[in-house]
Design goal:
Blueprint (H helix, E strand, L loop, with lengths): L7 E4 L8 E8 L4 E10 L5 E6 L4 E5 L4 H15 L5 H4 L1
Antiparallel strand pairs: 1-2, 1-5, 2-3, 3-4
Length: 90
């Protein structure tokens, strides 16, 4: 499932490992995401978000809307198709 805004993630690589937070922005052109509370202070005192590569995070909680629920239902039904249950094999 692709990552998107308002998903909750945990960082599992790099300097910010084991930090948790909500995705604030997905920057698709630069292949990075910005996570709340993962920021750096600039020399002039301004805080800027640190870009994190999406492959270095684990999604812990999805923001479900109707389109995303439908996607998960489709994926779930595809894995069930053609599979045998324990009752059928016994």
């Amino acid at each position: 499932v692709p990552i998107r805004r308002d998903d909750e993630v945990i960082i599992n690589r790099g300097h910010y490992k084991d930090r948790e937070g909500k995705v604030v922005q997905v920057y698709r052109k630069k292949w990075c995401i910005h996570i709340e509370r993962v920021t750096r202070d600039k020399a002039n005192g301004q805080t800027v978000p640190i870009p994190i590569h999406p492959s270095k995070v684990i999604i812990t909680k999805l923001k479900l809307d109707k389109d995303r629920k439908a996607l998960l239902e489709r994926k779930n039904s595809a894995t069930k198709k053609g599979k045998y249950t324990e009752k059928e094999t016994a």
